[in-house]
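TL;DR need structure tokens for one chain.
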Amino acid sequence: MKQLIYLTALALTLSLWSCGGSNDDVESPDDPNTPELPDTPDTPDDPDNPDNPDDPNTPDYPDLELSATEFSVDASGGENELGIYYNSSWTLTGTTDWCTASATRGKGPDTLIITVSPNTGAARTTTLTITAGTRTPTQTQTLTVTQANSPDLDIILYTMEDVKEFAKTGKKKIAGSLKIVRGGGTEITTLTHLNNQLEEIEGDLIIDCGSLKNLDGLYGLKRIGGSLKLSNGSMPDWEGLNNLTSIGGSFKIDAYNSLNDLSSFEGLESLTSIGSDFVIEASSDYSYNYKFYSLNSLTSFQGLNKLSTIGGSFKISAKMYSLENFSSFEGLESLTSIGSDFVIEGSSYSLESLTSFQGLNKLSTIGGSFKIEADWGDLGNFSSFEGLESLTSIGSDFVISASLESLTSFQGLSSLSTIGGSFKISGNIGNLSSFDAMTSLKTISGDITINYCSEVYDFCIFKPLIGSSYQGTFVVSNCGYNPTKYQVLNGECSKQPEE
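>> reply
TL;DR here they are.
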């Protein structure tokens, strides 16, 4: 009996042990009771690779763009953010011991920190180059970083007494900037006491003195390393700067209710190059009780006959009854290239005398965009692109956003072959009848958008540009005829106006 009980207990123990499990057990994939896991999609090796169009995380930046093209930093230095917008790989070169970047290579869009160290010496400039893509040709964009000189090196003239005291030093070179500004005491009316001794300014030449009648006394000046800036003065021209050959930075005229005596650029006959931007900005106050003007005696660019290159942008911006008598680009007959954008801006009844681009007859390349932007009532007499017959390429966008009542054709753009960005027309150009004058146009890299050209019925000139290799969009609206891209490609690119 005891033996039977023992055998029964042993059998029960063995049975319980065989039903137990170990923590180290692994489910067998062959076990039909093992649950089947859902399939996991493959993870792309390179989520930012533009060759993987199915990846929803791929940003839409097929063309390299930067958030800025120029940083101007004061002598104390500091940090600036630079946005890089591109789908794939890029590299950055051109950093120095005083200008560094948080990264010099990357993949996909990114924001870099550009750090500039404090400056204890003269003004300085460097150019950072961002190169994108591994295919040929690669895309490049540049960022110019300019840092002001140490303020300890500046010469500031407030009064005639200051002018005379500085003349006594006999200096031929200023390591910093020369600033001629209005101050207390005897107002500065002339610089003749400087005796034409000064030959070079490493920094800027800044003139903000309404009483200054001429620039006599600066005939010895040959070079400005920084920028030439004029915001106030009573001089009719630039007589006194006749030996100035180069401006390393920008040439900027910024008039606010001022500079109405300035009628030409005569006196700058020796100037051949501007390293950065050439900017004319004019604005005025207006009310029912009074009206001021800015730069209303300036009619052209006469005096700049040797200027051949502008390294940065060329911009004319007029607001509120300013530059009313400016009528042509005559005087710029030697200008062949503009490194960045060409911009004409008008608002509130400005630039009413400008009719064409006569004077720019040798301009062949614009590195950036070509833009005409104006409110209704501005540029009312602008009628053609005549004067741009030598222009062959625009590096970025071609944009007209203006109500140009007198523009009837694109006459003058017969040599233009390449637009590196988009072609955008808007703003109600009611008398424009055709784009046919652009007979040499071979490439538009970006989108084509044409709006509010009510008399345009023929878009056949765009047919060879939007074939199978064209990656942009083609949109026509509010015109005399509004064909789709596929209608143009199928030969339905024009239509007879309805009677």
